[in-house]
């Protein structure tokens, strides 16, 4: 039996989206899709490293000691635990990450950066920054980027959803 609660929608919320709402929503999805596809293609072609792998390696490198609990990594990378497990399995086969045991919790494990993973991430960072700068940042002033960051924070605070 499902424990999910049905969301109650008021009659006014059932109305179609306004033109502004629709443009904003579709624009967000289109912009994200376009940027993600471009970034994924560039990282894959130049470094054999898809965007999802880059993001996971980046989060692990940024974590204390180059290691991060798998459950925290799944949350940071916006992946399901099973999706992260499959991705870490692949990164482990490629020698970019390894699983390390958690000394204070036998049930937990860490994803730990390898030397090879750190090297591949550093190489890919140049491509990542170039693509993001050219296809995203270059379209906005510093003031606009700050406003965008503030708006995204309203939707998805840095401390989680």
Task: Please provide a written account of the structure.
The protein has a three-stranded antiparallel sheet. The protein has helices at residues 19-47, 51-62, 70-76, 81-93, 115-135, 142-155; strands spanning 67-69, 97-101, 109-113. The longest helix has 29 residues, at 19-47. The protein has six helices and three strands. The radius of gyration is 19 Å and the shape is globular. The model has no long low-confidence stretch (mean pLDDT 89). By secondary structure, the protein is mostly helical. It has a single domain, classed as Winged helix-like DNA-binding domain superfamily/Winged helix DNA-binding domain (Arc Repressor Mutant, subunit A), CATH 1.10.10.10. Strand 2 (97-101) and strand 3 (109-113) form a beta hairpin.
Topology:
Elements (H helix, E strand, L loop, with lengths): L18 H29 L3 H12 L4 E3 H7 L4 H13 L3 E5 L7 E5 L1 H21 L6 H14 L6
Short description:
With 161 residues, this protein is mainly alpha-helical.
CATH homology superfamily: Winged helix-like DNA-binding domain superfamily/Winged helix DNA-binding domain
Give the CATH topology: Arc Repressor Mutant, subunit A
Largest sheet: 3 strands, antiparallel
Structural class: mainly alpha
**Run of helices and strands:** HHEHHEEHH
Helical percent range?
Answer: 55-70%
Give me the CATH architecture, please. Answer: Orthogonal Bundle
């Amino acid at each position: 039996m499902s424990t999910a609660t049905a969301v109650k929608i008021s009659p006014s919320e059932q109305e179609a989206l306004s033109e502004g709402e629709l443009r904003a929503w579709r624009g967000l999805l289109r912009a994200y899709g376009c940027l993600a596809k471009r970034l994924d293609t560039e990282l894959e072609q130049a470094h054999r490293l898809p965007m999802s792998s880059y993001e996971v390696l980046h989060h692990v490198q940024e974590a204390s000691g180059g290691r991060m609990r798998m459950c925290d990594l799944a949350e940071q990378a916006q992946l399901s635990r099973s999706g992260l497990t499959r991705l870490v399995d692949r990164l482990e086969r490629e020698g970019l990450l390894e699983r390390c045991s958690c000394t204070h919790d036998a049930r937990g494990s860490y994803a730990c950066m390898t030397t090879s993973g750190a090297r591949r991430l550093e190489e890919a960072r140049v491509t990542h920054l170039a693509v993001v700068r050219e296809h995203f940042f270059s379209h906005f002033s510093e003031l606009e980027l700050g406003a965008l960051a503030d708006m995204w924070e309203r939707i998805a605070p840095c401390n989680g959803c």
